[in-house]
Design goal:
- By secondary structure, the chain is an alpha+beta fold.
- The chain has a domain at about 155-215.
- Helix content is about 25%, strand content about 45%.
- The chain is built from five helices and 14 strands.
- The strands form two sheets. Strands 5, 6, 7, 8, 9, 10, 11, 12, 13 and 14 form a ten-stranded mixed sheet that branches. Strands 1-2-3-4 form a four-stranded antiparallel sheet.
- Strand 5 (about 85-95) and strand 6 (about 100-110) form a beta hairpin.
- Helix 3 packs across helix 4 (about 185-205).
- The chain is globular and about 65 Å long.
- The two termini are about 35 Å apart.
- The mean pLDDT is about 85.
Length: about 300
């Protein structure tokens, strides 16, 4: 069973029989279907079913040519669709070795590390690959699922402090971009900034809580490359209901390290009351929808 099914309201699925009922329902009632025929004549299909606005389950597999079009399931995953473009960077796509799934990777200077996400729309990628896929700048809409999380109050900041933090972040982003090009001045400046930051945090942590010092963070988590521990600011909050199970979920619009994305979490797994301006802390599974054909 996919551990993130409970996030979108399927906590009651405990057995293989329960899962097969859900898969059969999606296969018959899918709200979105896409197919792709390979050069070898294999018909690859991707079907999605929404159970709340922008939230659902996708199944992938092949149609068997020898058995009157029998569908053979290869992979399935719960998803949440974002509403806004989060990143516009050069995107690299790679296939996972253990499942019929793909991950995307791009360098985003706002977080200072390579951003890796689970690719939601595989069929468009296969169509693009058929004519020769090359890494290029594409719009990427990010979203995430969280098994649990905590709501934290915001830090006290006036407009002057907010503008100063934003300016510092933009300056650091420019320095990282220059440093990656080999600019020694930028590398030295980043090194000095990191030393100063370490000294400041070491001094303040003696008398202050870490979450009053760190306003936002985006850190890789565990052995899964697309899992992160995040601390971000909530900009919008909606309570949705799974149309099949009637379980309730929160859909949070967030900004983390200046990167906007939507996050879904089961209501009973969220500690605290979410509201715009407050912060969310938790471990997430990052997903991404890449616009390969310039529709966004």
């Amino acid at each position: 069973m996919h551990s993130f099914l409970k996030v979108i309201g399927f906590d009651q699925i405990k057995t293989r029989a329960d899962l097969e009922k859900l898969i059969s329902y999606i296969l018959e009632e899918a709200s979105e279907r896409r197919v792709y025929r390979t050069k070898e004549g294999i018909l690859f299909s991707e079907m999605s079913m929404e159970f709340a606005e922008g939230i659902g389950v996708t199944i992938r597999g092949e149609y068997d040519n020898n058995e009157a079009g029998k569908f053979r399931l290869e992979h399935y995953f719960p998803y949440v669709r974002g509403h806004h473009v989060s990143v516009r960077e050069e995107v690299y796509i790679s296939k996972r070795v253990d499942t019929d799934a793909f991950t995307g990777m791009c360098d985003d200077y706002r977080i200072g590390v390579s951003l890796i996400f689970y690719l939601q729309n595989v069929i468009p990628y296969l169509e693009k690959s058929a004519v020769g896929y090359e890494p290029a700048v594409y719009p990427v809409t990010l979203s995430a699922l969280a098994l649990n999380g905590t709501i934290i109050l915001p830090t006290m900041q006036d407009e002057k402090i907010t503008n100063s933090i934003r300016a510092d972040a933009n300056h650091r982003t420019q320095l990282i971009a220059e440093a990656k090009k080999g600019n020694q001045e930028a590398i030295d400046s980043l090194t000095i900034d990191d030393i100063d930051l370490y000294a400041t945090v070491s001094k303040r942590i003696r008398t202050e809580d870490v979450y009053s010092i760190v306003d936002t963070s985006f850190i890789p988590y565990g052995s899964e490359s697309d899992n992160y521990t995040v601390l971000g600011t909530i900009t919008d909050c909606r309570l949705l209901e799974n149309s099949r199970t009637k379980e309730e979920m929160y859909l949070l619009s967030m900004v983390c390290n200046q990167i906007p994305f939507e996050l879904c979490i089961n209501k009973k797994d969220l500690y605290g009351e979410p509201a715009p301006g407050r912060r969310f802390r938790g471990t997430i599974w990052m997903q991404g929808y890449v616009d390969f054909f310039g529709n966004l």
